[in-house]
C-alpha cells in the first residue's frame, strides 16, 4: 500500500515524465571523463500517438504487421562502420576492383571529401555513384547537389537512376531546388540567379562536381560559387587535376579542405620551385594522397581488349566516279568564288557526303539551292548537271560492300554514318538483304533510344547509328564497328570506337574503315590511320592535343582548307602529312609534360 | 538479402496488407493491391486525393512484381523487385509505418479442458529501439527491450523471445488482466534509462576517434586562416562556415529511435525471470 505522500510524489513524477516526453527530441548528454562526450538524441515523437491509442484502445496494428515492421527495420540497419552495403544493393553490373577500392578509401580514409582523378574511362561516375549510394543507405546523405557540364546532365541523371536506383532529378525549373532532394544541374545554370540563391540557402549533405578542372582558378566565379555552397561531404571529379601549374591543384584542394596543403604562401615556398616544378616532392605527394585518388590504366590491369583495324577499299562504279569528280570540281569552284565561313561549311559537308552516299548529296544540294536559288525558276546549269549525274547513279558500291561484309560476320555489327540520308538508305538495303537492322540517332527521344538499344541487344543484328547517336550509348555486347564514312575530326572517331571498346568489352574489337579509292576519303583514312595512328590504341591526350593544335578553327575546317588549296593529289598527301607530323609532335610534347606532372603529383607508376 | 528473402517478405507483406494474389509463379507475382498498399507503393498521391475529394469508388491498381527477370515469360509486364530497388524500399518503409503499435494477448499455451478457473495475464511494455552511432560514418543496432509492468523487471532481448508465441488482439476466454503497477510514461522512462546506461557502458573508441579527427580538422583550419583580428570580414564568414561544416561532418552523436512498441499481456512468467 502506498501512503498518501508517496502517492503524491509518484503522480508528480509521472506528470514530469509525460511532460518530458512531450518535448520534441530533447537532448540528453552523456558525459564521460573530461575529453569524451557525445550527445544522445531521443526521438520521442512516437510517445503521444501511442498514448492516444492506449486511451482510445482502437487502431492497434496486428501481430503480423508488428513482425513485418521489425523485419523491415532489421534489413535496413547498418551493422558496421566500415562495410560496404551498396555492393549488395545494385543490380545489373559489377563494379571493378579499383572502383570498389576508391569507394572504401573515400569513405574510410578521406571521410567523404575527395578528388576523384582517375584517368578518362576508368569510371569516375561509377565511383561517385557508389559513394553516394553507400552514404544514402547509411542515412548519412538525404540531399545531394550534383553539378556537371550541361551536356552531361541527362546522362548523369539516367545513370544514377538506372545503375544505382538513386532518384536523381535533372534540374529544369527554379522551384525544383526545393522539391527534389537529389538534383543534377548544370554548373552554368546553377551559378546564375535565381538558382544561385536557392543553392546557397541550403545545406547539402553532399556536393559532387564533375569536370572539376574548371575550378582550378580561385578568382573565377565558378570557384567562388562552389566555395560558398554549404556541404558536408564533397567529391570533385576530374581527369586532369593539374593541367599547367601546381597552384591549380592547390585551389582544388582548398575547396575540399582549406589548409590541407598549408596557406597559399607557405605552399608556394614549401612546394613550388617553378611553374611546373615542385620541391619536397615526397611530402607533397603524401599530402595530396590524403585527398586525391588517381587510378591509371597502366596500374589497373584493365585488359582493354585489342583493336583490330582493317581498311576496306572500295572501287567506285563509273557513274559514281563521274559524280564524285563533278561534285569535287563544283566544290572547288564555289570555294574559290565565295570563301566565307558559312558556305565553306556547306561545301565541306557536300565534299564528305559524296563519299558517303548519293542520297546524302542530294539532300544537301537540295537544301543549298533552295536558299540561294529560290528566286529563279530553273536550277543553274551546274546544279542541274549534278542532279543529272545523281540520276545516273543507280546503285551504291559501298552499300553492296557493307551488305557483303555483314553477311560474313556472324555477330552483331554497328555501322556509323554521319548522314541521315545514308542511314535510311542503309536500313533499306539491309532489309532487302534480309538483315535485321535498326536505326539510332540523336533526335530520338529517350524512350525510343532505350527501345532501340534493347532491340539491338536482343533481336537485331545491325544498328545503324548517326553521329549524334554516338554519345551516351554503351555497346559492350557488340565488337564489330563499320565506319561507313569517316569523320574528319579524330575526337569523333574516338567517340565512335569508345562506345564499343570500353571497360566491360570482352572481345577484341574489329574496326572496318570503308575507303573509296582515289577520293578524299582515302587521304583522310591514311592520315588518321597511318599518320597519327588513331585506331590501334587509345590516345588519352587526344582532346588536349587537338585543342593545342587548332586554336581558332575546327579540325575539319583546317583539313578542308588543306585539301581545297592543294594543287593536286600529291600535294594533298604532302600537306596532310605535314599536319600529321605537327600532331605527332604536339602529342610527344604533351605526353612528356604529363609524365613530368604525374611524377611530381602522384609518384611513378606502381610496378 | 537474396531474392528468396525478398520474395518471402513480399508475399507476407501482400498477405498482411490484404492484397489479393492473382498469379504466383517462380519468376513473379501478380497481385491486386489493397488501398493501403497502393498508396504506399505506387506514388500516386494526386489520384488518391482526387478519389477522396470527389468521393469516387477507389480503384487500387494491379501490380506485377518480378523476382527473376532472366527467366520471366517474354510478354510479362512488371517491375523487377530486389533489395536496393526503390519499390522494395517503399515496401520496407510501408511495413514500418503501419506496424508501429500493438496491444496483444497471448494465445493460451495449453487447452486443458477441465480448467475452470480464470488465469491472470501480466502486462508488459515492449519497445524496439534503433540505436544509431553517427559521426562521419554510421552504424546501428536494434535493442529489443521489454518491461514487466507489475514488477518493473526488464528483459533483453524481449521481442525475439516472445516472437515464438501466438498472439491475438482479443482477450482469450478464461483469462483476466492484472492492473499494471507502473504507469506507461514511467516505464518508458525506465527503459530509456536502462538503454542510456547501456550506451554509456559501451566501448567509446569510435566517438573518441571521431572527436580526434574533428579537432585535427579544426586545427588545420585555424592554421589556414590568419589569426583573429587580421581576418577580413569575408574570411571570417568563410571560416565559420567551414567550422560548422566540419562539426556537422565529424561530431560523434547517438540517435535513438523507436521502431515499434506494444503492450503484451502474457501468462505469469514465460521467461522465468
Fold blueprint:
The complex is a heterodimer of chains A (607) and B (273).
Chain A: H1 4-22, E1 27-32, E2 36-42, H2 47-56, H3 63-76, H4 97-108, E3 113-116, H5 124-137, E4 144-148, H6 153-164, E5 169-170, H7 176-179, E6 182-186, H8 187-190, H9 195-200, E7 203-209, H10 221-228, E8 230-237, H11 246-256, H12 264-271, E9 272-274, E10 277-278, H13 281-289, E11 292-293, E12 307-314, H14 318-337, H15 341-353, H16 358-372, H17 381-392, H18 397-407, E13 413-417, H19 420-432, E14 437-440, H20 446-458, E15 462-466, E16 480-483, H21 490-500, E17 509-516, H22 520-531, H23 542-549, H24 555-565, H25 569-602
Parallel strand pairs in A: 3-8, 3-11, 4-6, 4-7, 5-6, 7-8, 12-17, 13-15, 13-16, 14-15, 16-17
Antiparallel strand pairs in A: 1-2, 9-10
Helix pairs in contact in A: 4-5, 5-6, 14-15, 14-17, 15-16, 16-19, 22-25, 23-25, 24-25
Chain B: H1 3-16, E1 20-24, E2 28-32, H2 35-41, H3 45-54, E3 62-66, E4 79-80, H4 86-98, E5 101-106, E6 119-134, E7 138-148, E8 154-155, H5 159-162, E9 167-168, E10 175-177, H6 184-201, H7 205-224, H8 233-250, E11 253-267
Parallel strand pairs in B: 3-4, 5-11, 6-10
Antiparallel strand pairs in B: 1-2, 2-3, 5-9, 6-7, 6-11, 7-8
Helix pairs in contact in B: 7-8
Amino acid at each position: 500500500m502506498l501512503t498518501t505522500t508517496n502517492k503524491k510524489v509518484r503522480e508528480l513524477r509521472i506528470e514530469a515524465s509525460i511532460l518530458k516526453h512531450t518535448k520534441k527530441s530533447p537532448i540528453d548528454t552523456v558525459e564521460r571523463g573530461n575529453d569524451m562526450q557525445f550527445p544522445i538524441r531521443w526521438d520521442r515523437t512516437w510517445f503521444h500517438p501511442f498514448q492516444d491509442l492506449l486511451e482510445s484502445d482502437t487502431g492497434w496494428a496486428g501481430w503480423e504487421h508488428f513482425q513485418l515492421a521489425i523485419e523491415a527495420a532489421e534489413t535496413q540497419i547498418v551493422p558496421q562502420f566500415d562495410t560496404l552495403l551498396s555492393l549488395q544493393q545494385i543490380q545489373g553490373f559489377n563494379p571493378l576492383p579499383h572502383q570498389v577500392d576508391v569507394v572504401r578509401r573515400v569513405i574510410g580514409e578521406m571521410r567523404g571529401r575527395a578528388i576523384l582523378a582517375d584517368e578518362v574511362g576508368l569510371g569516375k561516375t561509377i565511383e561517385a555513384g557508389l559513394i553516394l549510394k553507400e552514404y544514402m543507405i547509411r542515412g548519412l546523405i538525404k540531399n545531394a547537389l550534383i553539378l556537371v557540364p550541361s551536356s552531361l546532365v541527362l546522362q548523369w541523371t539516367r545513370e544514377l537512376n538506372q545503375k544505382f536506383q538513386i532518384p536523381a532529378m535533372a534540374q529544369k525549373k527554379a522551384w525544383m531546388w526545393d522539391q527534389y532532394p537529389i538534383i543534377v544541374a548544370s554548373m552554368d545554370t546553377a551559378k546564375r540567379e535565381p538558382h544561385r540563391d536557392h543553392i546557397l540557402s541550403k545545406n547539402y549533405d553532399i556536393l559532387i562536381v564533375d569536370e572539376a578542372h574548371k575550378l582550378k582558378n580561385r578568382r573565377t566565379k565558378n570557384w567562388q560559387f562552389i566555395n560558398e555552397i554549404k556541404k558536408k561531404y564533397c567529391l570533385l571529379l576530374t581527369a586532369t587535376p593539374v593541367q599547367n601549374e601546381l597552384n591549380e591543384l592547390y585551389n582544388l584542394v582548398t575547396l575540399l579542405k582549406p589548409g590541407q596543403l598549408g596557406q597559399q604562401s607557405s605552399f608556394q615556398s614549401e612546394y613550388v620551385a617553378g611553374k611546373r616544378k615542385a620541391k619536397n616532392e615526397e611530402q607533397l605527394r603524401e599530402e595530396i594522397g590524403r585527398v586525391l585518388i588517381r587510378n591509371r590504366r597502366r596500374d589497373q590491369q584493365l585488359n582493354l581488349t585489342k583493336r583490330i583495324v582493317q581498311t576496306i577499299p572500295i572501287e567506285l562504279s563509273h557513274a559514281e566516279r563521274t559524280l564524285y569528280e563533278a561534285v569535287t570540281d563544283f566544290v572547288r569552284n564555289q570555294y574559290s568564288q565565295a570563301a566565307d565561313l558559312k558556305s565553306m561549311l556547306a561545301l565541306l559537308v557536300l565534299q564528305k557526303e559524296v563519299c558517303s552516299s548519293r542520297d546524302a548529296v542530294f539532300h544537301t544540294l537540295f537544301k543549298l539551292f533552295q536558299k540561294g536559288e529560290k528566286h529563279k525558276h530553273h536550277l543553274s546549269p551546274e546544279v542541274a548537271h549534278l542532279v543529272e549525274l545523281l540520276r545516273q547513279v543507280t546503285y551504291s558500291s559501298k552499300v553492296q560492300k557493307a551488305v557483303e561484309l555483314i553477311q560474313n560476320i556472324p555477330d552483331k555489327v554497328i555501322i556509323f554514318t554521319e548522314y541521315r540520308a545514308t542511314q535510311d538508305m542503309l536500313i533499306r538495303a539491309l532489309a532487302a538483304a534480309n538483315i535485321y537492322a535498326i536505326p539510332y540517332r540523336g533526335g530520338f527521344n529517350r524512350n525510343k533510344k532505350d527501345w532501340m538499344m534493347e532491340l539491338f541487344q536482343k533481336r537485331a543484328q545491325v544498328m545503324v547509328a548517326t553521329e549524334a547517336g554516338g554519345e551516351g550509348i554503351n555497346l559492350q555486347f557488340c565488337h564489330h564497328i563499320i565506319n561507313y564514312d569517316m569523320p574528319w575530326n579524330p575526337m569523333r572517331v574516338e567517340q565512335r570506337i569508345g562506345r564499343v571498346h570500353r571497360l566491360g568489352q570482352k572481345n577484341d574489337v574489329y574496326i572496318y574503315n570503308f575507303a573509296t579509292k582515289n577520293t578524299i576519303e582515302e587521304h583522310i583514312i591514311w592520315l588518321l590511320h597511318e599518320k597519327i595512328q588513331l585506331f590501334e590504341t587509345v590516345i588519352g591526350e587526344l582532346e588536349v592535343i587537338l585543342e593545342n593544335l587548332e586554336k581558332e578553327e575546327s579540325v575539319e575546317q583546317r583539313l578542308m582548307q588543306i585539301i581545297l588549296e592543294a594543287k593536286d593529289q600529291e600535294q594533298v598527301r604532302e600537306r596532310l602529312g605535314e599536319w600529321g607530323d605537327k600532331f605527332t609532335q604536339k602529342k610527344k610534347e604533351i605526353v612528356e609534360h604529363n609524365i613530368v606532372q604525374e611524377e611530381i603529383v602522384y609518384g611513378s607508376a606502381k610496378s | 538479402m537474396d531474392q528468396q528473402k525478398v520474395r518471402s517478405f513480399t508475399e507476407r507483406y501482400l498477405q498482411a496488407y490484404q492484397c489479393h494474389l492473382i498469379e504466383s509463379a517462380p519468376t513473379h507475382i501478380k497481385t491486386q493491391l489493397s488501398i493501403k498498399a497502393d498508396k504506399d507503393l505506387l506514388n500516386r498521391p494526386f489520384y488518391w486525393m482526387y478519389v477522396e475529394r470527389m468521393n469516387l469508388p477507389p480503384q487500387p491498381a494491379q501490380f506485377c512484381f518480378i523476382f527473376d527477370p532472366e527467366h520471366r515469360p517474354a510478354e510479362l509486364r512488371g517491375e523487377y523487385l530486389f533489395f536496393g530497388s526503390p519499390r522494395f524500399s517503399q515496401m520496407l518503409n510501408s511495413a514500418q509505418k503501419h506496424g508501429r503499435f500493438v496491444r496483444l494477448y497471448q494465445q493460451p499455451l495449453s487447452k486443458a479442458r477441465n480448467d475452470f478457473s480464470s488465469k491472470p495475464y501480466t502486462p508488459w511494455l515492449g519497445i524496439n529501439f534503433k540505436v544509431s552511432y553517427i559521426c562521419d560514418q554510421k552504424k546501428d543496432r536494434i535493442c529489443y527491450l521489454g518491461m514487466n509492468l507489475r514488477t518493473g523487471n526488464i528483459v533483453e532481448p524481449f521481442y525475439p523471445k516472445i516472437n515464438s508465441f501466438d498472439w491475438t488482439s482479443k482477450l482469450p476466454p478464461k483469462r483476466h488482466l492484472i492492473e499494471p503497477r507502473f504507469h506507461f510514461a514511467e516505464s518508458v522512462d525506465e527503459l530509456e534509462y536502462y538503454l542510456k546506461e547501456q550506451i554509456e557502458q559501451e566501448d567509446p573508441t569510435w566517438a573518441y576517434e571521431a572527436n580526434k579527427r574533428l579537432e585535427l580538422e579544426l586545427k588545420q583550419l585555424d592554421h589556414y586562416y590568419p589569426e583573429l583580428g587580421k581576418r577580413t570580414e569575408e574570411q571570417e564568414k568563410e571560416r565559420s562556415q567551414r567550422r560548422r561544416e566540419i562539426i556537422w561532418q565529424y561530431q560523434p552523436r547517438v540517435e535513438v529511435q523507436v521502431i515499434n512498441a506494444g503492450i503484451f499481456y502474457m501468462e505469469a512468467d514465460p521467461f522465468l525471470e
